[in-house]
Amino acid sequence: MESKRPLYIADADFDSIPETAEEGAGREGNNRRSGQEGRHQTSSSPFAALSTMSTYDQELAAARKAASLAARLCQKVQRALLQSDVQSKSDKTPVTVADYGSQALVSFILQRELPSENFSLVAEEDSGDLRTASGTETLRRITEVVNETLANDGSYSSTLSAEDILAAIDSGKSEGGPVGRHWVLDPIDGTKGFLRGDQYAIALGLLDEGKVVLGVLACPNLPLASIAGKEDSNKGVGCLFFAKIGSGTYMQSLDGSSPVKVNVSATENTEDASFFESYEAAHSMHDLTSSIAKKLGVKAPPVRMDSQAKYGALSRGDGAIYMRFPHKGYREKIWDHAAGCIVVTEAGGVVTDASGQPLDFSKGRHLNLDTGIVVTNQKLMPLLLKAVRESLEEQVSSL
């Protein structure tokens, strides 16, 4: 049965989206992030220096549509995971039909919805493995599921060929950089979570002159209710978070409910703070985050979750801190953080590297940063950075 078509707002008027009294009360502090009077006031966010002349409404509408349809494709594949849907890339990382299909679909939709733009996409996958004899069946399945998703949506009359799919995937080979506009995509962030049936996200952001100006996170397996257990757990599953520079962060269901504004946790007491970290120990040093949490006096155990769904959960206050400290030699990719970064920042949070510097997405496909990434609210960040610095110094002295 065809699922309910998601709601898309073609020219999003954020000022017309209602908010609760609690959210209105929280705006006074959060609106220090933007550069206008009233609802959009001066911003301390690293995204605020960009000119507000371009509102990015059309780009955000296209991004929301692309991420929503990619999420629908991923849900379909996950429900009927076939043996041929999983293959190994040369680095042995599992990659799925949904991973390739998501990238092809997002690329196709962005180019259809924004035909006048010079299209540049920085994305994780390329079609190399699919062009080999062993990839023939996988390519056939990708082509099938992309066309099924497009047909069910009904917005496009196109039927894509295998060559169209390969070309769409390979449109993601851009190197990004500080000049012009570049879309940044992780077609399935959290592939291992996807294969386990756990959390994953379709993460799509837009860079303009090296700054992230909008971001969308589609999180098909994230409950609409807080995972901190403070809300009705019967609200359903499947969230779409979206943020645009100077306009705050909003969440709606993937089925298309009305968007609601979200804000990061306002807690100022580290003992009351819970923290997120990567599910896989190979992705982050859990012993280091444990040491930092101990210094902060955090009492709750860590919430371990795959993908940028952590950024989405943090943006609505499910937890107060996210820490990521990859093992030595690992270089962070921009698609693993671009969308999540603006989703949290526009919700009132702060995202920096371990030394307190904002993330710089203008250097190409990788982030050049100090040691790791930390995320929290403005009140807790000084305390968090102090604990990070002390724990890192202790780690060095113990070697």
TrEMBL record:
Residues 24-40 have a biased composition (Basic and acidic residues). Signal peptide: none annotated. Pathway: Signal transduction; phosphatidylinositol signaling pathway. The gene is LOC116210493. Pfam families: Inositol_P (PF00459). One of its GO terms (molecular function) is 3'(2'),5'-bisphosphate nucleotidase activity. It catalyses: adenosine 3',5'-bisphosphate + H2O = AMP + phosphate; adenosine 2',5'-bisphosphate + H2O = AMP + phosphate; 3'-phosphoadenylyl sulfate + H2O = adenosine 5'-phosphosulfate + phosphate; 1D-myo-inositol 1,4-bisphosphate + H2O = 1D-myo-inositol 4-phosphate + phosphate. This is 3'(2'),5'-bisphosphate nucleotidase. Its EC number is 3.1.3.7. One of its GO terms (biological process) is inositol phosphate metabolic process. Its cofactor is Mg(2+). Mg(2+) binds at residues 124, 186, 188-189, 336. Residues 12-22 have a biased composition (Acidic residues). It comes from Punica granatum (Pomegranate). Keywords: Hydrolase, Magnesium, Metal-binding, Multifunctional enzyme. Belongs to the inositol monophosphatase superfamily. Residues 1-48 are annotated as: Disordered. Transmembrane segments: none annotated. Converts adenosine 3'-phosphate 5'-phosphosulfate (PAPS) to adenosine 5'-phosphosulfate (APS) and 3'(2')-phosphoadenosine 5'-phosphate (PAP) to AMP. The keyword Metal-binding applies. CDD domains: PAP_phosphatase.
